[in-house]
Amino acid sequence: MSVEEGSPVRRRLFRSVLALVVLVTAAVVLPQSPAAAEVRGPWQIQGIQSRKCVDVPNGTFNNVQLTIYTCKDKGNQLFYIQEIYNGEYNIWNIQTGKCLTVLNAETTNNTPVIQYACNIGLNELWTLPADLTIRNVKSGKCLTVQNNGTANGAKLLQFTCNGGQNQIFTWARGIEGN
Q: Which residues, 6+ apart, have CB-to-CB distance to 29 below 8 Å?
């Protein structure tokens, strides 16, 4: 049986090969899905200037501004990180399941860092460079303790990275389930 140019058999074969090429290309080019990426933690995120931990005060609602507070190894101070794209991470609280997010995807200084339902927007993706800052992917600005605060309840916001001690955080292994 010969397959003539333009025949239904040849068109089906061409479509099958084309579909296979598209699938293979998609598998190679598309980023790893969040479900497949490794989750690490839980961690306490501690400011080196204050020796206090990033804290989710007052509940599980969206738009709660994050603060620092005396470290207690409780769920509102424990976070998981998950690489979403190459070197870009979601950071979310184990008690609320919500992500560290820059309010309204703003790129200006002094914008609050809040918790919000995770949706992999650029305003909730962070890089973790070797200088121990936590940098927002969309704005390029650093997680910062407002006004160099060291007291419980000092608010977290984004600000231009400047090497200040209020922008440097360490990660300590937390105990899950508290």
A: none
